[in-house]
Amino acid sequence: MDNANFRRFFGAFLTILGTFVILFALVAFLKDGQAVLGMRVKNLGEAIVPFLVGMVFFIAGVSLINRT
């Protein structure tokens, strides 16, 4: 696997992972304190961390795909 194909594959992986983490954060916030996949999110402060991590993964993946 050459460098360009690896970068595209890794970019797609980061984009998909970021999408799932963002969706998890949104669902966990909407569950109103109930456990989602074993994790409880009680307020906005606890929901913002997985959302921001998901956004970093998503933006990094999209930019990695666009640069190759």
UniProtKB/TrEMBL annotation:
Keywords tagged on the record: Membrane, Transmembrane, Transmembrane helix
Stretches that traverse the bilayer: 9-27, 47-65
Top-level taxon: Bacteria
Keyword Membrane: yes
The protein's name in its UniProt record: DUF3098 domain-containing protein
